[in-house]
Amino acid sequence: MIRILSSLVALFSVATLTAQHATPEVPKLVVAITIDQFRGDYLEMFKQTFGQKGFNRLLSNGLVYNNVFYDFPKPDKASAITTIFTGANPSYHGITAENRYMVNLNREESSFFDDNYLGNFTSDKRSPLPIKVSTIADELKIASGGQSDIYAFAPDASQALASGGHAAGGAYWIEDVTGKWATTTFYRNKQLIVDQHNRSAQSLSNAIASITWRPAIDISRYNAFPYTINRYSFQHFLGQNKKDNIRLFKQSPYVNKEVNDMAIRMLESGSLGKRMNPDYLALTFYAGNFEKALDQNYSVEIQDTYHRLDQELGRLLDAIEATVGIRNALIFVVSTGYFVEQELLPDGMLTAGGDFYPDRSQALLNMYLMALYGREQWIKKYYDGQIFFDRKLLEDKKIDLAEFQQKAAEFLVQSAGVQDVITSHQMLHGAYNANVQFYRNGYYKGISGDLFLELQPGWRGIEPQSPDTHRVRHNAVVSPVIFFGSDIKPEKIERTIDATEIAPSVAYRLRIRAPNAARGEILKELF
Description:
The chain is an alpha/beta fold. The protein folds into two domains: 29-339 and 477-526, Alkaline Phosphatase, subunit A, CATH 3.40.720; 355-461, Gyrase A, domain 2. The protein has helices spanning 2-20, 40-45, 55-61, 77-86, 90-93, 136-143, 157-164, 192-198, 204-207, 245-249, 254-268, 298-323, 358-373, 391-396, 401-412, 424-429, 434-440, 502-510, and strands spanning 29-36, 63-69, 99-102, 107-110, 119-120, 150-154, 170-174, 181-184, 212-213, 236-237, 279-286, 329-335, 354-356, 379-383, 386-389, 418-423, 451-455, 459-461, 481-485, 491-498. The strands form five sheets. The chain has a ten-stranded mixed beta sheet, with helices on both faces. Strands 14-15-17-16 form a four-stranded antiparallel beta sheet. A hairpin with a 6-residue loop joins strand 7 (170-174) and strand 8. Helix 4 runs parallel beside helix 7, helix 11 (254-268) runs parallel beside helix 12 and helix 13 (358-373) crosses helix 15. The radius of gyration is 25 Å and the shape is globular. 45% of the residues are buried.
C-alpha cells in the first residue's frame, strides 16, 4: 500500500510539473498591431476616457513591457516597423527611413520603390524586395508549406509592405490621392473583399466628402494636460481640401477605423484562423498629432485620437473573440518608438539652441574641399542629416575616401549646432564607441550617405524642401509593448526591451524559425 501511495504521489508530482512547464499551444491566428507614434505616457494620462474593451482589457490581461527601444538614429514609420518584423536593425534589413536619396538617379524615392512592379489602384511602384532579410510572415509561410494566409493593412505603403513582408497574400495601404486600398503587383493574389470594397459606395474615395472630425465625447473630460490655456471644441472637414484630403485623413483617428473595418471584414469572412496552420493579420494604426498648421488645439485632439483608438481596439478584440476566440489568437501591440511634434514657443521667448541651415553648411564645406582638392562640386546632396559625396569624382581623381571623409567631418563638426559628425568609414572600419555603433546600426552600404550629422538638443534643421523642422530632443518616448491572448500570462514588466527581440519571440511562440537576420534574445516571460 505504501509503495502504491508513493507511486501515485510521484505520478501526480510529475504531472503537475509537466503542466507547469507545458509548451503553449500554437495559436491559430497572429494579429500584429503596430501603432505609429504610440506613447506610454499618454496611455496612462488619458485612461480616464477609456472603456473596458480596448486598452484596459489589454493592460489587465496582457503581458505588458513598459518600453521598447530602437537602437539606431531617427526611427520612423518605415525603419521602425521593418525592425519589428525582421528582428534586425537597418544595417541588416536595409530600410533606413521612409524615403531614401537615390544617388545614381539624383532623386528622392520611397525606400520601397521598385520599378519592376506596377501598382493596383495606384500609380506608385512598390514592392517588399528592398527588405534585404526575411520577416516573421516569411518564416511562417515557409514553415506552413505555403498554407498560412498572410495579410497586412496600413495607412501607408511602407507600413503595409514591412509588416506583410515578401510572403503576404496581400499588403494593402490607403492610396494618397484616391483613398482606395492599393497594393502592388508583386503580390499575385487579389483579395476579393478588398476589391469589392474599393468599387463600392462605402469606399473612402466616396465617403470622405462627408467625414467631419469632431470630439467624440464632451471636451470637459479631455483634461489630462494641466497647462492647456485655451481648451475648445473643434471640427475638421476632412473632405474639404481635395488636394490634401487623404493626407489629412491619415492624420486623423478616422484612419484607424478605416484600417479596422478592413480587418474585421477579413475576420468575418471566415478565411482566417480556421485551419491547422496559423494565419497572420498585420494592422497599423496611427496615434500621432494632427497637422498643426490647421489647429493649435493639440491637447483636445490628441486625447480624442486615443479615445477613438481605444474604441477601435475594443471593436477589433470583440471581432477576434467572435470569429476565432481570443484563446486561439496571439495578439501583440507595438509602438514605433518615436513621436513627431512641433514646439511652439511663446512670443519673445529665447532658448538655448538655434537654427541649422544645411544648404549653408554644404556650401561652406564644398568651398573648404575645393581649397584642399581642387575646384569641383564634391558634394552630391545633403539629405536627412547625411551628406553624399560624388564617389565617381573621387575615384577619377584617385582621392582616398577615408581621408576625404575625415577632413570633411573635422570641418563640419566646428559648425554651430553640430554635436558630432560620423563618417561611413568609421562605421565600417573605424574604432568603435557607443555613439558610432548606434549610427552603424542605422547605416546600410549603398543606401546611406558618407557623413552623418548629429545636431545638438534645441537646434532644428531648416530645409526648404522639408516641412519637418521640429527641434532636436534626445528624450526617450516611452513606448509600450503588449502581448495578449493564447496562453499569455498577465504581467507587467518594468524594463526596456529591444525592438529586435519581438520577432524571434513571436517566432518562438509559433514554433518556427526566427527571421534570418534576427539576433535578439527571446523574451523570457513568453516561455
